[in-house]
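It would be a great kindness if you could assist me with a short task in structural biology. The matter concerns a single protein, recorded as an amino acid sequence and a row of backbone structure tokens. The record follows directly beneath this note:
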Amino acid sequence: MKSKFVKAVAGVSLSALVATSCVTSAFAKDNSSTIYDSGTGYIAEKITHPEKGVMTTDGIVDYIGNGKLATNLENGNGDRGQNYSWGSIGYGDYMYIGTCYGAWTSTLQLMKQNLGRDFDDTTMKEALDTYYHENMYTGEEDGVDALGILLKLNVKTGEVKILMSKDLTNQNTIFRNAIEFKDKLYFCGSVNTIPCIYQVDPKTDECKQVYAGMTLEEYMEEYSKGISVGIRGMCVFDDKLIVSCINSEGAIICESENPEDQDSFKVIAKDEDLFNYPAYHYCDSIYGGSIFDMTQYGKSLYVSICTGTPANATDRNTMQAFGLVRGDIQADGSWKWTSVVGDKEKDGAKYTFGIDPERTRSGTANLKVFNGYLYIGEYNDEEIAVERMLFDNDFEFMNLNFEQSINFYRMDEDENIELIVGDADEMFPNGGISGLGSGFGSHENQYIWNMTVYDGKLYVGTFDASSFLIPLDEYMNDENASKEWKDKVDEYVEKICKNYNGVPDSAYKCAEYLDKATFGFDLYVTEDGVNFTKITDNGFGDPYNHGCRAFGITNEGLFIGTANPFYGTQVWKLSEKTVTPVESSEDSKQEDSKIEKDESKTESSSENSTDSPKTGDSSNGIAYFLAGLSLIAIVYTMNKKLFKKN
């Protein structure tokens, strides 16, 4: 049993924790910045609230009370409620970001309103504050929500401008996807609950709605039926904007050559065209993820679909896996749809649901074209797992997800699929051709959450489920967890769970996975699509960065927006390290990067290794550096669980 991070030492140990995770503070002129060195040739620099470092409030903007936001404040407080950089895109010197506000609290309300999980709001807040030692964002102290926003971030200067917000424009925005089309930027999701698409003119910052999936009355009616209405998928196909949404007719895909005109949107696929695969009720897999991702590959449109429903579930803990459908334009302008991954017998699919019949956890998939292949990243169903853990004290669904962490495939133009990252089984007896096991060797990786192609390389970011489970890890694995805290946890679990009967066996098994976990998202890069370099496996040194959610390609390079439901989203600039010859003069030596000096002190040989991570591997990391520093050594011993390296 190992000592873990606990609130009692958090203030004392922050500097030591930052050091152990290859994060340093570098200073240029009068501005401080936070730097993460991968040890494998990459450096990430935090550009939002850089002076604050990691594991502290960010959120890009600053909350100033009574639901109001400010920007560009000197030593601003940040905004913990802006949890995710969600629908995001780079353009020129800017990264445009639609945020997800209060991800955890919003999810709880969804469970309450649509899934029948009744609870007292005050009790739930107290419980979460207890479980997470108040590190999880559960609302502002003044009780007012700023809600989601759309902003532009100047990646050269760090200057932020809010384009849409409740405070400034009376709009609560929830944009989950963004794309550039004909020199305009398009964001899809919802504004003031109505599913819609907004256009942003980057030359003028004008924001206007160009498409609404339904009226407010229609939305309320469908929402009351438990239908997960919304707009999620969006891509460009030849000279057309393609969007998917759920409306009163069900799941549809539309095309438009001129999206400024709502009447130009033409329906090209309905449920029946997509073999009735889309699952779009909140009780379905991924909360009714439906048409999840779309991309053009060759002359075809490929669509990943969430298909799992209670009706087609194999058992209580196994939902039907994702489908993949191909669309082809016919001579008359109509579309022909073919099942590629789906029902082999009924629909003639080439592969069964989820591609591999032994793979049962992936509710949907994300898609990216790279080097002539279509890459397919699994996306496990964490929504049901979280609901069961929280309200049923049942960890079985989560354990099955951990047991079968994500695979990564690629498909050629003849629709032949090979396994790139994954464990060996009957369909792929040699495992992934990269040599990496499922989850890139880590059970806690549960989504391929986002991918981008930049400078001839494919970047792959994950969602790390262990960050959400820090309380369970502390409760089960931390020998220093106080009895008083554990008793308080038991008290709240008993209040929230209907049939509480102590710690279940499934919790012990889940804790075994967590005891080997490294908290924080992973990010990998590949130049050939097979061999991967690990950039981070600990969320750039922040265990609360549970997801690599957004990429922005700008004139200044590649930028990454994190998912952090604890202290707010962060934006980082990712760069490859350049090796410059060392000049002979002492002055030149002193001008060398302070980061490289720091890493020479803090990184061990294992951290500098470029070997692929293996499931469950661990390392003593920087022990040799801390040996002579007794106080930091003690703190490190108490905290190394959050940052141990693979």
